[in-house]
C-alpha cells in the first residue's frame, strides 16, 4: 500500500542527505513497481542516491524490499546448507560459470544459478549457452527443481517476477548516469541472489583496465558493501578480487568460449581459467563446511575437473535444459559437432619483434563487439560464432618475432573489417624489453575478503 508521503518528498529527503527509513524505501520500491512513480521521478531518486549515497542499513533495506517486490524461489529445508552461487562483475572472456556450476554440483553442492545476457563486449553467460543447439535458458520452477535434484545445478535466465524492482531501476540507471553507484550495484546483485534462494555467495570482483573497477581500492569498496549487505540478509559472502586486464583463457566470443569451457571441464583448459574456477569453488566448499580449508576446497574442485565428474554434471545439465542427449554427449566430446562455426578465420600477426608488454583485453572485447559477438543495444541479435582466440604463447613478457601469430579472428564477413584488425593489432603492446613485473598470466587473484 502506498504511503501518504509523495514521491517527490522522498526525493527531497535523499537530495538533502537525510537517511531514508525502511518505510521510506519500501514505499519508494512499491511506487516504482506499481508504476505510480514517473520516469523522471525515478531518475531523480537514482541521482540523489548516487550523489548522497546510502549507508549499509539503507542499502540492506532497499535490497530487502526489492526481493519482496516479486517471487522468491524456495528449494526445501533439506538443501538449505548446500545452496550456493557465484557472481562476477564481468570481464573479457569470462566463461567461469560454465565449468564452475557443474564442478560444484559434482562436489555435492546445489547451484541455482540465475544469469543474464551481455550488454557490451561479448555475450553474457546465457548468450554463450544459447550457442549450444537446443539449450533453453528459460525454465519453469519444476524443471529447475528437477535439475537441482540431478545433476545439482542449472543456469537459467531471470523470470519477470524475480525481484522486478531491480529490473525497473536497472533499466533507468544507464540513461541516468548512475550505473557505477556502489549501493545500487550492491542492491541489484544481492536482491537477485536472495530471491533465487542461494544460501552462500562468492563474488568475483574484477579489477583492471577491462573491468568495472579500475583500482583495488574501488573493488574493495564494492566488495565490502556486497559482503555487508548480503550478510545482513542472511547470505554469507566472500569476495575474490581478480585481475582483469587481458582476457580469461584464450577465447573471446560465445561459441568459442563454450568450447574452451568444455576443455576446462575435461581438465584440459587454460591454466588461468582452471585456477579461477578452483579458487571460487574452493571458497564455497569451505564456506559450506565441505572442505577443511580453502586449499582443500580448491583441490576438490580441481579433482572434479580432471576425473570427469564435473563434465558428467555439465552433460546432464544440458539435457535438463533442452539439449538432445546426442547433442549433449557431442558437446562434451567434440563441441564443434554442435557449436556454430564462423565461415572465415584471419590471423593477426606481430608487426615487429620484441617482447609483449601488455595485452589490452578491452580492445579485444571491442573488436569482438564490432564483429557481432556483443551488443550495442539490448534487443540486438548476436553472431554466436564470431570472436578471437589468442595464441597459446601470447602473454605479458613473451618474446615475439615479426610475423608471429598473436591471435586468430573468427568472422562471418569474407574480409575482416579494417577497424577490427586495427583494434586487435593495437591490443598487443610490443616493446624492446619485457616489463619488470611479469607475473604468470594464471596469477589472477589479488585478494580474498570475507
UniProtKB/TrEMBL annotation:
One GO-annotated biological process of the protein: pyrimidine nucleobase metabolic process
Matching Pfam families: Glycos_trans_3N (PF02885), Glycos_transf_3 (PF00591), PYNP_C (PF07831)
Gene this protein is translated from: LOC113216108
Keyword tags: Glycosyltransferase, Transferase
GO cellular component: cytosol
Domain Pyrimidine nucleoside phosphorylase C-terminal: 355-431
Family membership: Belongs to the thymidine/pyrimidine-nucleoside phosphorylase family.
This protein's name: Thymidine phosphorylase
PANTHER family: THYMIDINE PHOSPHORYLASE
Pathway: Pyrimidine metabolism; dTMP biosynthesis via salvage pathway; dTMP from thymine: step 1/2
EC code: 2.4.2.4
Role of this protein: Catalyzes the reversible phosphorolysis of thymidine. The produced molecules are then utilized as carbon and energy sources or in the rescue of pyrimidine bases for nucleotide synthesis.
NCBIfam families in alphabetical order: PRK05820.1 (NF004490), Y_phosphoryl (TIGR02644)
Amino acid at each position: 500500500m502506498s504511503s501518504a508521503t509523495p514521491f517527490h518528498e522522498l526525493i527531497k529527503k535523499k537530495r538533502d542527505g537525510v537517511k531514508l527509513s525502511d518505510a521510506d524505501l519500501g514505499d519508494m520500491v512499491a511506487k516504482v513497481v506499481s508504476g505510480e512513480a514517473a520516469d523522471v521521478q525515478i531518475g531523480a531518486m537514482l541521482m540523489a542516491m548516487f550523489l548522497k549515497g546510502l549507508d549499509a542499513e539503507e542499502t540492506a533495506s532497499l535490497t530487502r524490499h526489492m526481493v519482496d517486490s516479486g517471487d522468491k524461489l524456495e528449494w526445501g529445508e533439506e538443501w538449505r546448507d548446500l545452496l550456493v552461487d557465484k557472481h562476477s562483475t564481468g570481464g573479457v572472456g569470462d566463461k567461469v560459470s560454465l565449468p564452475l556450476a557443474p564442478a560444484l554440483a559434482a562436489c555435492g553442492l546445489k547451484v541455482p544459478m540465475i544469469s543474464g545476457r551481455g550488454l557490451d563486449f561479448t555475450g553474457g553467460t546465457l548468450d554463450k549457452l544459447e550457442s549450444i543447439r537446443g539449450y533453453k535458458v528459460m525454465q519453469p520452477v519444476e524443471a529447475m527443481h528437477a535439475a537441482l535434484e540431478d545433476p545439482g545445478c542449472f543456469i537459467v535466465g531471470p523470470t519477470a517476477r524475480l525481484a522486478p524492482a531491480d529490473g525497473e531501476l536497472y533499466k533507468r540507471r544507464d540513461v541516468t548516469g548512475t550505473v557505477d553507484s556502489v549501493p545500487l550495484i550492491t542492491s541489484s546483485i544481492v536482491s537477485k541472489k536472495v530471491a533465487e534462494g542461494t544460501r552462500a555467495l562468492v563474488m568475483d570482483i574484477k579489477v583492471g583496465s577491462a573491468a568495472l573497477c579500475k583500482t583495488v581500492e574501488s573493488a574493495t569498496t564494492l566488495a565490502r558493501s556486497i559482503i555487508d549487505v548480503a550478510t545482513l540478509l542472511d547470505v554469507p559472502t566472500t569476495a575474490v578480487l581478480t585481475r582483469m586486464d587481458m582476457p580469461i583463457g584464450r577465447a573471446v566470443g560465445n561459441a568459442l568460449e563454450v568450447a574452451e569451457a568444455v576443455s576446462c571441464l575435461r581438465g584440459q583448459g587454460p591454466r588461468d581459467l582452471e585456477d579461477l574456477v578452483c579458487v571460487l569453488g574452493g571458497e564455497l566448499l569451505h564456506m559450506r563446511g565441505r572442505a577443511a580449508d580453502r586449499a582443500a576446497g580448491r583441490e576438490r574442485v580441481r579433482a572434479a575437473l580432471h576425473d570427469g565428474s564435473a563434465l558428467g554434471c555439465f552433460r546432464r545439465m544440458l539435457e535438463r535444459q533442452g539439449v538432445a542427449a546426442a547433442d549433449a554427449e557431442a558437446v562434451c566430446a567434440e563441441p564443434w559437432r554442435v557449436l556454430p562455426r564462423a565461415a572465415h578465420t584471419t590471423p593477426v600477426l606481430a608487426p615487429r619483434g620484441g617482447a609483449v608488454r601488455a595485452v589490452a583485453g578491452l580492445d579485444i572485447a571491442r573488436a569482438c563487439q564490432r564483429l557481432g559477438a556483443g551488443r550495442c543495444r539490448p534487443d540486438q541479435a548476436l553472431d554466436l560464432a564470431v570472436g578471437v582466440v589468442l595464441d597459446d604463447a601470447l602473454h605479458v613478457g613473451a618474446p615475439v618475432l615479426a610475423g608471429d601469430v598473436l591471435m586468430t579472428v573468427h568472422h562471418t564477413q569474407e574480409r575482416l573489417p579494417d577497424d577490427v584488425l586495427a583494434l586487435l593489432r593495437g591490443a598487443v603492446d610490443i616493446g624492446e624489453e619485457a616489463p619488470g613485473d611479469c607475473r604468470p598470466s594464471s596469477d589472477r587473484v589479488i585478494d580474498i575478503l570475507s
